[in-house]
Amino acid sequence: xxxxxxxxxxxxxxxTPHPGGASGESAHSEIVLDRLDTNECPYDxxxxxxxxxxxxxxxxxxxxxxxxxxxxxLKEAIAQYVNESLNAPGLGAESIPFPPLNKGGLGSESIPxxxxxxxGLGAESIPxxxxTxxxxxxxxxxKTVITADNISVGNGSDELIRSLLIATCLGGAGSIFVAxxxxxxxxxxxxxxxxxxxxxxxxxxxxxxDINAAxxxxxxxxxxxxxxxxxxxxxxxTANALTINEIEWLSSLPENILVVIDEAYxxxxxxxxxxxxxxxxxxxxxxxxxxxxRLASMRVGYAIAHPELTATLEKIRLPYNLPSFSQxxxxxxxxxxxxxxxxxxxxxxxxAKLIAALxxxxxxxxxxxxxxxxxxxxxxxxxxxxxxxxxxIMQQLKAQGTLIRHTGGGLRITVGTPDENVRTCDRIGEIxxxx
Length: 435
Ligand SMILES: Cc1ncc(COP(=O)(O)O)c(C=O)c1O
Hints:
Number of strands: 13
Helix content: 25-40%
Order of helices and strands: HEHHHEHEHEHEHEHEEHHHHEEHEEEH
Oligomer: single chain
Bound molecules: pyridoxal-5'-phosphate
Radius of gyration: 21 Å
Strand order of the largest sheet: 2-8-7-6-5-3-4
């Protein structure tokens, strides 16, 4: 290793987008792969919209000029979308019981998916509250009103995660808390910055955070103290939304701990905690355009928080962190949200079919999902290593043309197109018929 590189980085395993897999096998590759390992929407922008976007690029973007360094128009558009989603009926934090499906638990039909009513997703269908100043600064009670001051935009929410770590923990100022399994980038990014990671486990049946262990870990780790608690709502890879108990615990955390609620999969769960931000200046919500909005290639994420926190994030980020192409695409996607989000009911119904099909296999333990992916584990005979088995299945599926993710002690399968889902189920069927 080069002697000037920090020693701790030698031991760090980087995030691998397609582990064991096909990094870079592009849409133009000879092999047609079903890419069900990174939780994107399975659909590209419709052809007509792509043409419109290309036209917009041609009209609006001067490539010799820097992008809008303050993301003004995009922040306004995001604030409007967040307000709209807050006002959609049926949203809330109510949670679902979460045993694995084929252990006498819920049938796939009984997963209460909140209705994706038109009003919530439409571009014009809801009266948008005025974008008043003040926002989470304390003014608008009881209804939360989000303004552009409450929004910060990142090069993917990954960038926002890093900025939050810099803002709170860098230089020995703090450590972070995660409950595993969860999104690996919190720990990986913290480690790249020399920030300690405190972790506990989850209930093996429901994947709820072990709250007693969590509180103990936070109380005991004072050097440096925990400054951020990261949660995903719904969690990746396990697909469970936060429960009322977990939310109560997060509410009880002191104001010197930042609670990051990552709602990367909000559009699939329609379950947000954004309406509680006004009660908690130490909470921040992260969302992304990489999933339901079909813009993973553009790298746009956003945070919703107290204006003092978003102002701090603005100080930390690089000056022109978001290319004009990405900003324009995100604004475009928001303007077209009614059309783009219209596939969500299909994805949710495909999710139910996928769960139902996988649940047929005795050897698979499958959990309900509040997101656009399904989590499962293989039950193994005594002496057989589940991790080896998971790795083997992942590789066998890859050989057949389906990429899935082996993570968190199990397998995560993104809900794909109906054809992809049928192929996945057939291929898994073949593996189990043979074994
Ligand atoms: C929970 C969670 N947060 C954040 C991200 C990253 O999102 P982005 O593409 O905006 O960086 C992902 C991506 O898979 C995710 O699963």
